[in-house]
């Protein structure tokens, strides 16, 4: 397995480098950030399959490519630092799930509660922000009623997601959560540093987080688990 891991590490690091240097990993979008990213996908895969340190190295390559293309928007200390943590967080979260949740059902239940709270909070705050920023004040005549409606929708969605996750295999849950948190680490870390550096107003930063960060995290959650399962199955079959 050592030789296979070395080969797989080389493949993912090369893939990250190619996606970064050719800009395949960046999708131009009409937002102040300049581009949405696919670069987090190989970084998350590296962290989950090969461990947090290889994931950090792939994330470092992601960061260097971001500095190369977007230094006109922000300095390197905004663009670079959060990227290595994508692979570190993804690798550690997945390792935690696989090590503890299989043997201790209580930990899995606690994790589900935390996930449901995070989903509810995000949906509610995003709904309130969208209501205030994207709709005319003349349309929002009943703010309390709209807030209650948003809270109810957020609650129902979070409960539904919790039950769906509860029925799934722990491995798939771990992969999904690790992928989501790895991607969100990039969004929160980079936009947080941009806020500290006052690159954009806070309203713009929140908008970028909602418009780009959440779709990127959802994409990672959908794409990464089946790829990991397929690669692991291939490696097991090749033995």
Question: What portion of the residues fall into strands of 2 or more residues?
Answer: under 5%
Tell me the CATH topology: Arp2/3 complex 21 kDa subunit ARPC3
Q: Average pLDDT, to the nearest integer?
A: 83
Let me know the largest β-sheet.
2 strands, antiparallel
Straight-line N-to-C gap: 9 Å
- Estimated radius of gyration: 19 Å
Helix content: over 70%
Overall CATH class: Mainly Alpha
Name given to the CATH architecture:
Orthogonal Bundle
Following the backbone from N to C, one meets helices and strands in this order, namely: HEEHHHHHHHH
The domain tally reads 1
In DSSP terms (H or I, runs of 4 or more residues), the helix count works out at 9
Strand order of the largest sheet: 1-2
What is this structure's SSE topology?
Layout: H1 2-21, E1 26-28, E2 35-37, H2 40-50, H3 52-70, H4 76-79, H5 83-101, H6 105-134, H7 143-166, H8 170-196, H9 202-238
Antiparallel strand pairs: 1-2
């Amino acid at each position: 397995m050592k030789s296979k891991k070395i080969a797989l590490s080389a493949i993912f690091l090369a893939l990250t480098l190619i996606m970064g240097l050719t800009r395949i990993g960046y999708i131009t979008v009409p937002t102040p950030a300049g581009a949405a990213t696919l670069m987090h996908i190989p970084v998350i895969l590296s962290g989950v399959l090969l461990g947090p340190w290889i994931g950090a190295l792939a994330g470092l390559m992601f960061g260097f490519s971001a500095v190369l293309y977007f230094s006109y928007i922000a300095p390197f200390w905004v663009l670079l630092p959060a990227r290595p943590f994508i692979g570190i967080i993804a690798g550690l979260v997945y390792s935690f799930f696989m090590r503890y949740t299989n043997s201790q059902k209580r930990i899995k239940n606690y994790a589900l509660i935390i996930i449901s709270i995070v989903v509810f909070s995000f949906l509610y705050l995003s709904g309130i922000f969208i209501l205030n920023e994207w709709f005319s004040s003349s349309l929002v005549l009943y703010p309390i009623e709209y807030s209650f409606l948003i809270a109810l929708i957020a609650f129902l969605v979070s409960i539904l997601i919790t039950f769906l996750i509860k029925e799934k295999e722990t491995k798939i849950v771990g992969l999904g959560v690790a992928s989501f948190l790895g991607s969100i680490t990039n969004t929160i870390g980079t936009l947080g540093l941009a806020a500290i550096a006052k690159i954009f107003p806070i309203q713009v930063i929140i908008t970028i987080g909602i418009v780009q960060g959440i779709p990127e995290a959802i994409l990672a959650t959908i794409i990464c688990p089946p790829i990991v399962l397929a690669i692991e199955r291939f490696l097991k079959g090749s033995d």
